[in-house]
């Protein structure tokens, strides 16, 4: 039980983007203070001016939404500060302290949030952050391709992986083991799993006619 608790408490990563308005208004230090005070550790950061085309790739899933062009124009209008942040439950906690995307709504619903304190509206809202664990992995990889982003999978992801990749093969292996009744069951099972690994690349011999 204690080991499972320790696994559950491993920190995960999320991405925060401090937008051009945050840099222009010189509030990045204040925002970072709020982030650190909330228990986040900055794992990596970089200040960069990203092209409009690259923002289009990054926000591609939203390209059919109203105001998409205005978002691209704004994000490409100046430098941003990219922060890779680490904390237990990083994605949800960051969304919480960022507040609702529209700063006007944030001031009503979450007055102490970053967007409420430093943003103006839904466009000039000083920051973006990852909306889910898979999104965090994808977004960190987009800007930091050499960083290993491998938080522990959720229980649901683990069960799905086992059901898809492990259970059937293991059942076949144990059935074969019972039939074979080898002298060294562990060694035999290891050899069987290596031989019958479904993920093992197969090299087909080329037929020359």
Features:
single chain, 209 residues, alpha+beta, four-stranded antiparallel β-sheet, 11 helices, 4 strands, disordered C terminus
Query: SSE order, as H and E?
Result: HEHHEHHEHHHEHHH
Per the principal axes of the C-alpha atoms, what is the gross shape? Answer: elongated
Largest sheet: 4 strands, antiparallel
Q: Which range does the strand content fall in?
A: 5-15%
Decide which structural class fits the backbone.
alpha+beta
Overall pLDDT level: 85
Describe this structure in words.
The protein has 209 residues and is of the alpha+beta class. The protein contains 11 helices and 4 strands, in the order αβααβααβαααβααα. The protein has a 4-stranded antiparallel β-sheet with strand order 2-3-1-4, with helices on both faces. Helix 10 packs across helix 11 (185-195). The longest helix has 26 residues, at 155-180.
